[in-house]
Amino acid sequence: MKKNASPKTPPLRPFTSGRLVPVALGAAPARGYDIVIGDSILSEAGALINVRLGARRCLIVTDTNVAPLYGRRCEAVLTASGHTLLPTVTIAAGENSKNYATLQTLLDQILLNGADRQTLIIAFGGGVVGDLASVAASLALRGLDIVQIPTSLVAQVDSSVGGKTGINTAHGKNTVGSFYQPRLVIADVSLLDSLPPREMLAGYAEVVKYGLLKDAEFFRWCQAHGAQLLSGDHTAQIHAIGESCVHKAKIVAADEREAKDRALLNFGHTFGHALEAIGGYSNALLHGEAVAVGMCLAFKLSAQLGLCSNAEAYEVRDHFMAVRLPTAPSNLAYDDIDRLMQLMAQDKKARAGKLTLILTRGIGKAFVSHDVDADAVREVWRDALRR
Fold this sequence. Notes:
The chain is an alpha/beta fold and about 375 residues long. It has helices spanning about 45-55, 65-80, 100-110, 125-140, 155-160, 195-215, 215-230, 235-255, 270-280, 285-305, 310-325, 335-345, 375-385, and strands at about 20-25, 35-40, 55-65, 85, 90, 120-125, 145-150, 165-170, 170-175, 185-190, 355-360, 365-370.
């Protein structure tokens, strides 16, 4: 276990080969929380919650993919540690569930099942479950504590950490939501063993993102060890998730509500969200796949503007191609450039309708650029859609 573990936290035997990453928030230490990363640590989730939050009434939110695989195990672990369970709420798996209707159903179930202000919400699933459960927790009874137990790679490295929550609307991805921090994150890499290869790849795009943002050395690690991570090597997964969480924790601690540098975490997302929206948030293009395309386009735009070299843009593209992530839109449904530009202008980072994009001066040198030239963006889209 890392030496940066809280001195109040007793030794946790199963995590000797894992990692603990603290997230520090503001001047009040009580607002901070831990990200615990390890192999087969779901069995200790109840004890971890006890150490940090005490025995609680818990309500698990999960989905139709995770519940049959791990639902009963999660319930048994919590009850064995002295927690009282309210009926589990299971939502339909998939991005299409991130909407008003599912949120209303979830809130109704939380209240109907007898939640009170001491009830702890357990988000047990991927990014969709984590986002929906967090929005619901922030609203129900004016705020319930939430613990994230992410079961997908994208959730373990990104969406479960940092407190950004949201649902999708006709106006764009995550356009309704809140900043609402979890009390604890438990990332068990053994849960990734059941992920389909495509889901692992989609999550891997978010791993690479952290190297492209501010850590060229970590990007080199991904080039050398990404295949091991994707093939199921738990040691490589723990390292990659740990490094990703360290980077995200630093950025979140410095800018919790995305007033400044936290926007860097959206590298590739403005392009990617436009593709997701025009595709109807369907399985035709997963979030991580859209982000991979978006990062390639952001590098291409940066090279076109003379900010970075074409060689670096090609290096990023080649790594994604090597692991079989998409690097450009491949469906004719994405050929409406005017619609893509409109969706980008609706992005949450936009200011007075002007584009704000994360650009880069090279691998590990991303920065926020306001009022990006729209004609240059159009040219990148035109070039990408010629393929």
